[in-house]
Design goal:
Length: 470
């Protein structure tokens, strides 16, 4: 195990050879002592509850099953005769068996209560009522067609659950449990997900998805310098990955431009909104699949997350987002932004999106499908290919992992607020897609724009980007 190797290496660094030998002798004595108590290993339950969203959408209204029994064949095979009704207690001519379709002359009146008359079919031997019970449930299980009940209600989501003990989904999941898991399931039933669950979100897609960054207090035309100078600032700060102090020092000592490090930060923040609009306008629609992942950064020494979506075609970043959590809302916004850049083929296939095991992607796909956005999610689990999906789509997952490592070179410092992290991310994506040459693309940029091709200097490319958007 990796943790054991790391502990052994740490011991070797901290202790002398004689001390390590003494530790080994003490450990041998403890191993041979029957009274030595070791930490008990936690049992592994392969079917232990994992957050998983059922892919099937619920039924909005109860759909009656088609007749599985034909009364005519039963009458022919069993020579069933019609019923000779006597007295007033007989069914109306409009009554038919809902199970086999037999007409009224094969129907008994099963009780004498006029308020809720029950009938019995002579052909299929099943009982029914003329007026079925009206269900007040909002959703129905797509597997067994039974009504879902409201299970939990939270600020953003309401969860509905199937309570039918004969539901095929419940029986199938229950059969997978081992004998030990079945005992644990009786004691702690919430530890295993066995039933169909639907999550209804109390949110609007238009309220979630915002393509606007928060406008900075200062605009580029407020600085007393040209766009070429601002382009030079972005060249050192973004393209060459220097800090604001290193950028100010380089400009002062190499070019004789006296700019403070705080001015560099203000310029970069003012340029971020321009770069974000440039990205939204010029990132093209790309064919093929895309992959998404989130990597962590620090904002005021607390973990935040940067979401990326990258296309298989020329490794173009199609979506990016900064959030303080790994929840469904951020996943919805990332997937929606990625779907907007998906170029459909002749068959109009849905966007193939590859992600890790984060359940937020499953919940986001379920929500977006309800909004009319078709996605095909493939989840690559873990670092080893233990299933067919991981083996098939691992290469796409590696693309976005490579983007995460690239971004780590830019986000070396701790940001002071989430707006600052978002402002830093937009020009980084601009640099990645339009300015930085990639060795895997024969030293070309992922997105090749005609207006940027013949510009030899990087600072002039930045200036042209800023000029074309302002």
């Amino acid at each position: 195990m990796k943790i054991i190797e790391n502990i052994a290496k740490w011991i070797c660094r901290k202790l002398t050879r004689e001390q390590v030998i003494r530790i080994i002798e003490v450990l041998n004595e403890l191993l041979n002592d029957s009274n030595t108590k070791f930490k008990e290993s936690k049992p592994e339950y392969p079917n232990y509850r994992k957050f998983q969203v059922d892919p099937e959408p619920p039924l909005d209204a109860f759909h009656k099953k088609e007749l599985e029994i034909d009364y005519k064949e039963i009458i022919k095979n069993e020579a069933i005769k019609t019923i000779k009704h006597r007295g007033k207690n007989k069914p109306g001519k409009h009554i038919k068996c809902p199970h086999c379709g037999a007409p009224h002359n094969y129907i008994y009146v099963n009780n004498g209560d006029k308020k809720s008359t029950q009938y019995q079919c002579k052909v299929c031997k099943k009982t029914f009522c003329e007026t079925p019970k009206i269900s007040v449930s909002k959703y129905y299980c797509p597997i067994c067609q039974k009504a879902l009940y409201k299970w939990k209600s939270r600020l953003l989501v309401t969860m509905y659950k199937c309570g039918n003990d004969n539901c095929p989904r419940y029986l199938e999941n229950k059969e997978k449990l081992s004998s030990v898991e079945k005992k644990l399931q009786k004691e702690k039933p919430s530890q295993f997900k066995l039933r169909y669950i639907y999550r209804e979100y109390k949110i609007n897609l238009k309220d979630i998805v915002t393509n606007e960054l928060k406008s900075p207090l200062e605009k580029l035309d407020k600085f007393r310098c040209s766009l070429s100078t601002i382009g030079l600032v972005l060249t050192f700060h973004i393209t060459l990955r220097h800090s604001t102090r290193e950028t100010a020092f380089a400009l002062r000592k190499i070019f004789g431009i006296k700019i403070s490090h705080s001015t560099v930060a203000r310029m970069a923040k003012a340029a971020s909104t321009v770069c974000h609009h440039f990205n939204l306008k010029n990132i093209p629609k790309v064919p093929g699949g895309q992959a998404g992942d989130e990597t962590y950064i620090k904002v005021k020494c607390k973990f935040h997350y940067v979401w990326f979506a990258i296309a298989k075609f020329r490794s173009i970043i199609t979506a990016y987002k900064v959030s303080d959590n790994r929840g469904e809302l951020s996943a919805v916004e990332t997937l929606y932004m990625a779907s907007e850049k998906h170029q459909k083929n002749e068959n109009k296939d849905p966007l193939l999106f590859v992600a890790d095991g984060n359940p937020s992607y499953q919940a986001a796909v379920t929500f977006l499908k309800k909004e009319g956005i078709d996605l095909d999610l493939k989840q690559v689990i873990g670092l080893e290919n233990k299933d067919l999906i991981s083996t098939t789509y691992r290469y796409l997952k590696n693309l976005v992992e490579r983007v995460n490592r690239t971004y780590k070179h830019y986000a070396v410092n701790c940001f002071q607020n989430i707006e600052g992290a978002s402002s830093h991310l937009a020009p980084v994506v601009t640099n990645y897609n339009f300015i930085r040459p990639h060795r895997s693309l024969n030293y070309q940029t992922p997105v090749a724009l005609d207006k940027l091709k013949n510009i030899p200097l990087i600072q002039d490319v930045w200036a042209e980007i800023l000029r074309s958007t302002t």
